[in-house]
Amino acid sequence: MRLTSAQLEQFDRDGYLFFPSTFSPEEIKVLTDEVPSLYAQHRPENVREKGSDAVRTNFAAHMYSAPFARLARHPRMVEPVVQVFGEPVYMHQFKINGKMAFDGDVWQWHQDFGTWFNDDQMPEARAMNVAIFLDAVNEFNGPLMFIPGSHKLGVLDAGHDTETTSYPLWTIDHATITRLITRGGLVAPKGPAGSMIMFHSCLVHASTSNLSPWNRVSVYLSLCTVSNHIRRFKRPEYIAHRDFTPIECLPDDCLLRPYEVALPWKDGTPEAALR
Ligand code: SIN
Ligand code: MN
Predict the structure, then answer these.
(1) Phi and psi at residue 174, in whole multiples of 5°?
(2) How far apart are CA 53 and CA 30, in angstroms?
């Protein structure tokens, strides 16, 4: 998938691109069929919501689940990022966020690069998020909210919030968010399962809790340019990967055909990846 020059300009201006219905229902079913068994596992990669059994986020499924390992090499997700940066990318982080019906909790206002810079010593914002919706996203089930153009501001001051949710995050204060929204507005891309979003790692974003009866499961690939790899291994490897090998894409039909993929963590997470 090649981005047009109009899309590249739009990305530069807004900090994100939305691609409705990029994956077919058959392709999405291959992934959604796999999620319940992943979420049922008791392994450290499943982070549960505070005070609940609902999975907030599952890390690194591409290391132990064949459908997600193929998704991690999908040209529709990886090639636009390589195009923007003009350089090969590796998988910095891979997650399947639950935002489950009734139980899905907030993600506070933040920039992903804030965390990657502060915790992982990623040198520059030459990394990108690509998300796909495994469920339809509507105004009720906690859509991701973006402040368009906020990626232009670089790394904003943030505080380390270890209290609000079960997952620590470098979050941005309310006065700054108010100022940014007054200037840039607020958007929340919504659409059917199979829709895709690409967003800049400095784009300020958040999502509210999910009080609806509809799950909002989405997958996020965080792709970093190889030369910009992280310098510090403070967080466990299943959260911030240490293998900087460039991703080699599979063919476009890789979700529908059983291409061979390595599953190095299939029988459990190696001890070294837990530290
Ligand atoms: C994130 O910011 O990493 C996740 C937000 C969400 O899934 O709503
Ligand atoms: Mn984020």
Answers:
(1) -65, -35
(2) 24
When pLDDT is averaged across residues 12-32 and rounded to a whole number, the result is 98
CB of 207 closer than 6 angstroms to any ligand 1 atom: yes
Residue 48: which H helix or E strand, with range? strand 46-48
Residue to mutate, 128, 207, 221, 239, ligand 1, most ligand atoms under 8 Å from C-beta: 207
- Asked whether the predicted pLDDT for residue 39 surpasses 90, the reply is yes
In order of their start, the domains of the chain are 12-274 (2.60.120.620)
Closest C-alpha residue for ligand 1 atom 7: 97
Q: Residue 86 pLDDT > 90, yes or no?
A: yes
User: Are 222 and 78 spatial neighbours (Cβ–Cβ below 8 Å)?
Assistant: no
Query: Cα–Cα distance between 124 and 101 in angstroms, integer?
Result: 36
pLDDT on residue 1: 82
Query: Average of pLDDT values for 132-153?
Result: 98
**Sequential DSSP letters for 57-115:** EEE-GGGT-HHHHHHTT-HHHHHHHHHHHTS-EEEEEEEEE---TTTPPPEEEE-HHHH
Ligand 2 centroid to Cα of residue 110, in Å, is 6
